[in-house]
Specification:
The protein has 430 residues and is mainly α. It is built from 20 helices and no strands.
Length: 430
């Protein structure tokens, strides 16, 4: 006899299922920013220029971004359980390749595999949230997801630096691969696509009909037929380009060179940027709900982000306490980017939540993909020939100012795009 559906799943079960998906996102964020504290090791071992180092780090973003639309489509059809399990297993394999890489080419291949595999995590988490949680918690789940990811980034800061100093970067990366493989096994054993598979009612209106199986081309035409999809794709890179470029790679050498921080201290300060970014992202959802507006807090956050970035780039010589306050404030302002996910979801039919989440998350990742290597290229163009004691290139303040100023152009594009979006007033489109 078929099981009789009971009440909605308890919060503990919903957050456990969602949390295992979040574990892969934590790993994805850890891998995303780990090169920031491995600059000396990677530069020395593979004889990298600034552009080559930026490219090695950005190989993660190349495949991550490329996977976002396929991930959304697969999540809408096959379900997040299979997607997350395969993603975690392949992330473990890519990490092992990176850890054992004999050349920069093999290391690039490992980073490429990690980005493609770990790139499924965020969209799959949002898909799980739409089935296991009430719709009013979607923005909260998006913000908490970023917080979980930033925990991974924090681990990739000072703690990773200490482990690398003690054990060597290759040993630490092999251990990371083993841990990721264990997460893959846990996801397969515990996660289910919909509460009905555990005997509960689903929060997703169409869950009883099984996974969506319409035409891929038709679904993409529908999603891209909404003006907001195109405009919102352009927006989040203005936020993430700053945070992922700075905290993910170039902030550590900038702070070490021009403010006298040790590598571990600079990594801790970059982690602080990520922590404030994630904490603020939890708050923006409820504030947006209270205002019944996605655009107002989004525009305010963008304006504050650009103003604080200008202060960091163009005003040198901040005292250490003021610099800490400035970086924390920058993270809080940039947390507004999280509104891209509820804004995008509300702008298209609910059944296409996975697809549009993949598109908007692609927009987020474009920030790191474009800015990490581009900043490295500009730094190389302004390099005066100085080297650190470890043999890495040393760039002066004018070089960093020229490279970091590229973000202001993206901020201007994002502002125009935001002003042209259609406000959803926090309600799902019919």
């Amino acid at each position: 006899m078929a099981a009789v559906l009971r009440k909605h799943p308890p919060a503990s079960a919903a957050w456990l299922v969602w949390g295992l998906g979040a574990a892969l996102y934590l790993i994805a964020f850890y891998q995303r920013v780990a090169p920031a504290v491995l600059v000396q090791e990677l530069t020395r071992e593979f004889a990298l220029t600034g552009a080559a180092l930026g490219n090695l780090s950005a190989f993660y973003f190349y495949s991550y971004v490329a996977m976002q639309i396929p991930t959304g489509l697969i999540a809408d059809r096959w379900g997040p359980r299979k997607l997350l399990t395969a993603g975690a297993a392949l992330t473990a394999l890519g990490t092992l390749v990176f850890a054992l890489a004999p050349t920069a080419y093999v290391a690039n291949a490992g980073r490429l595999a990690i980005g493609a595999a770990a790139g499924v995590a965020f969209v799959a988490m949002l898909k799980l949230a739409s089935h296991w949680m009430p719709s009013r918690q979607f923005a909260l789940a998006s913000g908490v997801a970023l917080f979980v990811g930033v925990v991974g980034a924090t681990i990739a800061g000072a703690p990773l630096r200490l482990l690398v100093d003690a054990l060597g970067w290759r040993t630490v990366m092999v251990a990371s691969a083993v841990g990721t493989a264990l997460v893959a096994a846990a996801i397969w054993l515990v996660v289910r696509d919909d509460p009905s598979e555990r005997g509960y009612d689903s929060y997703f209106a169409h869950a009883s009909g099984g996974m969506h199986a319409g035409s891929i081309g038709a679904d993409l035409r529908i999603v891209f037929g909404y003006r907001n999809t195109w405009l919102l794709f352009l927006v989040p890179g203005a936020f993430s380009g700053i945070v992922l470029m700075f905290a993910g790679l170039w902030g550590v050498p900038f702070l070490s060179t021009h403010y006298g921080y040790s590598t571990a201290e600079a990594a801790s300060l970059c982690s602080l940027l990520l922590i404030s970014w994630s904490v603020a992202s939890i708050a923006y959802g409820p504030v947006s709900q209270k205002l019944h507006s996605r655009k107002i807090p989004f525009v305010a956050g963008l304006a504050a982000t650009m103003a604080l970035w200008a202060a960091l780039v163009w005003v040198p010589g901040w005292s250490r306490p003021v610099l800490v306050v400035l970086i924390v404030a920058l993270g809080f302002a940039a947390g507004a980017f999280i509104l891209i996910f509820p804004f995008g979801k509300e702008s298209v039919p609910a059944r296409l939540a996975g697809t549009v989440s993949g598109i908007t998350n692609m927009g987020v990742m474009m920030g790191g993909l474009v800015m990490q290597p581009l900043v490295g290229w500009v730094l190389d163009r302004h390099w005066a020939g100085a080297l650190t004691a470890g043999g890495a290139r040393l760039y002066d303040l004018a070089a960093y100012q020229s490279a970091f100023s590229l973000l202001f152009a993206w901020g201007a594009v994002a502002l125009v795009a935001l002003l042209l979006t259609r406000e959803t007033h926090c309600r799902q489109v019919e």
